[in-house]
Each structure stands twice: as C-alpha cells, then as structure tokens.
Write a structure and sequence with these properties.
With 241 residues, this protein is an alpha/beta fold. 43% of the residues lie in helices and 20% in strands. It has 10 helices and 7 strands. Strands 3-2-1-4-5-7-6 form a 7-stranded mixed β-sheet, sandwiched between helices. Helix 3 (21-35) crosses helix 4.
C-alpha cells in the first residue's frame, strides 16, 4: 500500500484538490466552518494532523496562529509537496508507528479524510493508539464521508485506497468503544462564500428532506447527519471524570 501512497499526489490527489494558493485559502475557510467550535483557544496546543496530505489543514492552523502543529503522512511525495509550499512542520511516517512513539504528547489529533482508508481489522488499533497519544483532556477530530447520504457512495468508491465507510451511528460506536467521551457527530457544512455555494446549500436542504422522508418510510432509526461528509469529536477525559 505504501507504494500507492508514494505516488498518491500525482495519481489521484491533484485531480480532486486545488493545490494553488487560492485553493489553500478556500480550504482554510472550509476548515474554519468545520472546526472553529472545537479547536483550542490556546495557540500553543500540541496538534497532530495524521495523513496531512498536501498540508491544507496545516496551512489553516498556521494562519489561525497555532504554533505547535505537526503533519504526518506516509507519502513521501505529499511531504515533499508540503515543503515546497513552505509547510515545513511535517514528517514522513506511518501513522501507526508514529503514534506508538508519541504517548501522551498531543492535545488534539486530527484525521481529515483518513479514517476511511484504514482496514476495518486495524480500525480499533488506530483509535486506541490515538487515545494513548493524547494528553488527558485532549481530543480527536475526524472528517469522513457520511454513508447515510446515498450520494456518498461516490466518495466511498472514487478512491481505490478507501477501505470502509461510516454512518453517524457506526462512527460514534467505534469512538465509544475506544474510550472517548462526549462524542459528538455533526454535519460538515461548507461555508457560503458565493452565490454558487448558497445555491448548493439550498439544493442540499431540499435533497436532505427527500432522503429523510425515504428513510422514515423505510423505518430507519433517527438520522441527524445527512450531509455527504460529517465531523466527529471525542474527548479523552481527565481521570476521575
């Protein structure tokens, strides 16, 4: 699999991501919409971005004033691209091996579009390692496709390296099983920054209403997240809580 990821930037990633400065600026607006309610006020918080890709989230953290962040990716090509973009707080490493070496070191660990790449049989291992690498009171942030939305099937199968898909219920289940508390799942809503994005938001609300009616007709359990992507947060609570 590492051979695939070593050429991942050219074989897949660049075709679905705008790697210009303008693209990084737009991504920063997206991340601000997704995460602003969760990110720590302390700009010195230790934050690890696992599978950091081309560094868009790291660019966002830098521009928000965070000082102690680190991007980790198994792809040498992506790490080299980060450095070309002057995003230098990066390390080429397998996430599992990296986490084994960094116990109780981070305040937050972030997984943007990463967890769906992990084989199901290693999923609990990854989350347990993340839990062990967090300090007490630290948290994990996850963005991943939401399979409750039927149109997310494209996201699930568009990339050959995707291994598993989640609903809000299955994602909460694995976080609960890994020991995380105060687990919250919410829709990943992209900000309205143009007329086009406004129309997308309206169209999304209409399609979500239709999907919800179909799910109710089928007797499905209550669904809160119908966006094509979702955000999850879980906290490693202090002892005694």
């Amino acid at each position: 699999m590492k051979e695939i990821f070593d050429s991942y930037l050219n074989s897949y990633y660049k075709d679905f991501n705008d790697l210009s400065i303008g693209g990084y600026e737009r991504s920063a607006k997206f991340y601000n919409s997704f995460y602003r309610e969760f990110l720590p006020e302390d700009k010195n918080a230790e934050i690890a971005d696992l599978a950091c890709g081309a560094g868009q989230f790291l660019y966002f953290l830098e521009n928000k004033g965070y000082k102690n962040y680190l991007g980790v990716d198994i792809s040498r090509q992506q790490i080299e691209f980060c450095k070309k973009m002057s995003i230098n707080r990066v390390e080429e490493a397998d996430a599992f091996i990296f986490l084994e070496k960094h116990k109780n070191e981070f305040d937050w660990i972030v997984l943007n579009d990463f967890i769906e790449h992990i084989k199901k049989e290693r999923l609990m291992e990854l989350l347990s390692l993340i839990y062990a690498s967090l300090r007490k009171g630290g948290g994990v942030l996850i963005k991943t496709p939401s399979m409750t939305n039927p149109f997310s099937l494209m996201n699930r199968y568009i990339d050959i390296t995707h291994e598993v898909g989640f609903t809000e219920h299955s994602l909460k289940e694995v976080l609960d099983m890994s020991g995380f508390k105060k687990v919250k799942i919410k829709e990943a809503l992209y900000p309205i920054i143009s007329l086009k994005s406004f129309l997308h938001r309206i169209a999304g609300k209409i399609s979500h209403f239709i999907i919800r009616m179909f799910l109710l007709a089928e007797g499905s359990r209550k669904i809160k997240v119908l966006s094509r992507e979702m955000i999850a947060v879980g906290i490693k609570e202090n002892e005694g809580k």
